[in-house]
Amino acid sequence: MSEIYDRELEEIKKRKMLELQQRLLEEQRRKEEEALREAKKQEFLRRILTPEARDRLNNIKIVRPEIASFVEDQLIALAQAGRLPIPVSEDIIKKILEQIYSQTHREIRVRIKGRIVSE
Fold first, then answer.
1. DSSP-assigned states of every residue in the chain
2. Which one has a higher pLDDT value, 28 or 102?
3. How confident is the model over 61-71, as pLDDT tens digits?
4. Which conformational region is residue 46 in: left (phi greater than 0), alpha (psi within -120 to 50 degrees), or beta?
5. This model's pTM is above 0.70
């Protein structure tokens, strides 16, 4: 009885180990693909952006990485569609950022209603 239990336990351990190894390999492959995609993206941006525009985008990436990523994706799409003058200058980056800011920024106003109590 104990031998059967030991063999079953060993089989379960082997299956779990194989599953773990497969998950690790898949995760590693996914990370490598993502790194390759990011490298291609950066290379394309390096070709279409002026050094000043690239610096501006890198500064934005430090503060707001989600906005920088969005802008990069938009720049790539526009450049591939031929709707963007190449090389892309810092002024164009600023205009794109201003448009994003105007579309996403909401001014918050707080009104306080009530009477003023004086002592």
1. -HHHHHHHHHHHHHHHHHHHHHHHHHHHHHHHHHHHHHHHHHHHHHHHB-HHHHHHHHHHHHH-HHHHHHHHHHHHHHHHTT-S-SSBPHHHHHHHHHHHHHHH---------SPPP--
2. 28
3. 999 899 899 99
4. alpha
5. no
